[in-house]
Amino acid sequence: MEFGPRALGNRSILGNPEMQQKINQKIKFRESFRPFAPSILEKDAQDYFNIQNPSPYMLLVKPVAEKQRKAILSAKNKDLQTRLREERSTIPAVTHVDYSARIQTVKESTNPRYYKLLTAFKEKTGIGMLINTSFNVKDEPIVCSPKDAIECFLQTEMDLLVIEDFILIKKA
Predict the structure, then answer these.
(1) Cβ(91)–Cβ(37) below 8 Å
(2) Is 126 part of a structural domain of the chain?
(3) pTM of this prediction?
């Protein structure tokens, strides 16, 4: 089990920063509006957040940079659920209602494999960031073994599972 700094990116559910509702509803089985924490290439962090120092263990909560924010239309006559679902930034799945995010910065020297994944994702999408959330579903403990990981994978709508050098892909 986890104690101290988390195994971030190594025992996690990862996803595109635009997949908030899918991960909440079909994988984590929790409220669809709840944001996730971002893992971001350390060298790109200042482009998206007001952060001056690294945050390798997801311990810092920082504001989303002004240039990434979207204006929120008047909250008058809007119910709470509508206000919670409004996109507040270009990275909506990691932006809290107060425009903050709990950030993990990643650099090659501390986690080369995760750094390569974020770099490859950036090459495809232009964003060196992924949603990073604990590998569990609502009301369940974090997975502790490959068996736990496979069971969680099979009981949710995750697309694929990576365990060391093995990739399991769910097909329709």
Answers:
(1) no
(2) yes
(3) 0.89
